[in-house]
Amino acid sequence: MASCGPGRHTPPMKTKAQRTLITTAACFALALASVTALGGPRVAPVSAPPPGAKNLSAHIAGRIGDAGSYQWPGLYFEAKFEGESVYFKTGTGDVILHVLIDGESVGTLVKPAPGTYLVDGLDFGTHSVRIDAVTESQSAPDTFGGFALPASGKALRMSPRKLQIEFIGDSHTVGYGNTSLSRDCSQEQVWATTDNSLAYGPKVARRYDADFQVNAISGRGIVRNYDGSAGDPLPVAYPFVLLNRADTYDRAAWRPQIIVIALGTNDFSTPLKAGERWKTREELHADYEATYVKFVEDLRSRNKKAFIVLWATDLAEHEIQQEAGKVASILQSKGDARVAFLPIDGLAMTGCHWHPSVADHDTIADRLIRFIDGRHLVSNAR
Predict the structure, then answer these.
(1) What is the pLDDT of residues 265-291, one digit of tens each?
(2) Between the CA of residue 232 and those of 163, 176, 279, 318, what are the distances in Å?
(3) Residues 207, 369: contact at Cβ < 8 Å?
(4) How far apart are alpha carbons 136 and 147 in whole angstroms?
C-alpha cells in the first residue's frame, strides 16, 4: 500500500511518524491506485449502479435512522451475495470507512465524497461484504445508503449471530486517538487517529463472533462531562437514535446477553469549578452513584438476563474505580446477582491526550475476555 505525507489540507504534524498518517482523501486516492495496480479486489467511486441493479439487504447491529443516518460510533454494515462485484452508497458526513470482502480489507475511504462506490475484481462466487464506520461523529450524523448488486448478482441470506454484546462508555470506549503515535494531537489529528474497530469493544466481539453496539460519546459522563463542559451526559443521550434526541431507539431484536459499561472518567478526572451544581466532591459522588444505579436498573428492565460488567481504570487516584465499584456493590445489595465490577490497572495511555493506545485496548479486551470466560458468560448465553 502506498504511503502519503501531509497534503495541502493536512494539519501540521510534529513527528515523522505522525506525518505518515492517512488523513485526507488524496491519501486514499494514492492508496487506491496502488491497490488497483496490484490487481485483485478494489473499491472505487462510480457515477451510479448499472441499469437493472437490485438492492441487497444490509445487516446492521447499531443505531440507524429510517433515512440511513447514524451518529453513535462503531456501526457496521454487512451483506452476503453471489457474484463478482457489489455496490454501496455513502452520504454526507465526515467518516472513515473500512471496506472488507470475506473478512479482508480492500480499502479505506477517508472523508469519501457522497455517492456510489463499486467493489469489484472478485472471483465469481459467494462473498460477504462489510463496511466499518470507525470514526466518532458528535457534530453531525453520517449516512449509509445501502448495498446493491448488478443484475447478474444474487442476494444471499446471512445467518444471524447468536450472541449480542453492548459497550457503553466515553472516549475510552470510542477509541479516541488510539492509533496516534503521540499524546500531543490537534482535534483533526484526534479524528484521523480514532479507529473504533481497534478499540476494546469490537475486539471482544470478534473473539466471540458476536454482534455488537458501541454506544459511547467522548467527553461525557454519568452526571458530569469533562471539565464541567456542556452536552447531555451519557444516560440522557443514551435512549435516542441520534444525539439530537428526536427519535427514541427501540429495536426489539437488540437484546444483548452481555453489557459492558465504563463511565466515570469524565465525572472525576477534573476538579469541580465555580458555578457547577455540586458544591463538594461528596455531593458529586452521591449524584454519580444514584444516577449510575438508576441507569443500570433501566438497562436491566429491558435486558432481564444480561450480565452487566462495570469497569474502570486506576486514573484520578483510583477515584473512578472507587465510585464505580460502589455502584456495583449497591446494585448487588439490591439483589442484582448479574452485575460485577472489574478494575483495570496499569494502562500506558499513550494515545491522543493520554487516552488508551491500541496496545492498551488489547489489554482491556484481554481482561474482559478472561472475565467473560471465567464466568462462562458466552456458553451460558448460548
Answers:
(1) 999 999 999 999 999 999 999 999 999
(2) 30, 19, 20, 25
(3) yes
(4) 22
- 3-class DSSP state of 291: helix
Domains and CATH numbers, the chain: 40-156 (2.60.120.260), 164-381 (3.40.50.1110)
Q: Which run of H or of E encompasses 133?
A: strand 125-133
> Residue 22: what residue type?
I
Question: How far is CA 26 from each of CA 6, 8, 114, 307, 363, rounded to the nearest angstrom?
Answer: 10, 9, 15, 45, 34
Q: Is 76 left (phi over 0), alpha (psi -120 to 50) or beta?
A: beta
Q: Residue for cell digits 491506485?
A: 33
Task: Kindly report the number of other CB atoms within 10 A of residue 335's CB atom.
Answer: 6
Find the helix or strand (DSSP H, E) in which 86 lies.
Answer: strand 86-90
Sole residue written with cell 472523508: 111
Number of residues that this document lists for the chain: 382
Cα separation, 329 vs 363, in Å, equals: 25
User: Residue 366's CB: how many other CB atoms inside 10 A?
Assistant: 15
- Is the separation of the CB atoms in 237 and 71 below 8 Å? no
- Would you give the end-to-end CA distance of the chain in angstroms? 40
- 371 Cβ contact partners less than 8 Å away, ≥ 6 residues apart: 309, 340, 342
User: How many CA atoms are closer than 13 Å to the CA of 339, on its beta-carbon side?
Assistant: 24
Which residues belong to the active site? 171
pLDDT digits (tens, 9 = 90+) for 112-170: 999 999 999 999 999 999 999 999 999 999 999 999 999 999 999 998 899 999 999 99
CA–CA separation, 230 vs 276, rounded Å? 11
